[in-house]
Amino acid sequence: MGLFRRNASKKASDDAPATSAVEEGASGDVAARDDLAAGDPAAERDAAERPERGPFDASQVTSMGPRVDLGAIWLPVLPGLELRMEVDKKTQKVTGVSATLGGSGLQVQAFAAPRTEGIWDEVRGEIAGSITRQGGTVDDVPGSFGRELIARIPATGPDGKPAVRPARFVGVDGPRWFLRGVLSGRAAVDPEAAKALESVFANVVVVRDGNPRPPRDLLTLTMPAKSRPTGRAAGDAAEARGPEGAAPATPSFDPLERGPEITEIR
Length: 266
Prior knowledge:
The chain is α+β, with helices and mostly antiparallel strands.
């Protein structure tokens, strides 16, 4: 569903402390900001207006905390969380990141948005329309991050017969950016299973550069520094990944198989 290209230039976690670790990291950011603001009336006022629950803008945090730097997104990490970087085979650009934990998945993408208004209301309607045209069903409901979509998407099962894949689409409008998340697997249908990945999404930090960008333009993501191969290593890594085109251009709603902690898919 290439809904973000139209206008561009043109298992739940069974480890409760793991979820708390990310939340505590975010609380630490808030506490640090409040300490820095003490004694400065203007800074105190700004700190009071900043949200304690994210996703956050880079201006709202004082450190990266327990997150991995993916360029436009700083993604929280949890024990057992596996990351997959999605790469467009034509442009070689990283287009999104998928995190899996147990039987649940979360795909995250960040986009440019207008300075004066958000785009989630409009985008939500387009996603719903696209799924409906495919023969699926969608419910627009209140959720953890505001309005969200509970979707049942037509698919083909392993046996070749028609099947349905559930997905939850969540979105948050930030200052000149929009962050979209797609929850799949158990997290799409089980609120308890969704808690850990909801915590990951809630503690994402978006780093919006100062460059002018058309609304819905994908913000630039990068591979984590330790997993960016160069030279011969790059060729070896590409060969190990298998044939190009193996990764879908849109989110896969199947739970991803276990693999390296951080891998690249195309």
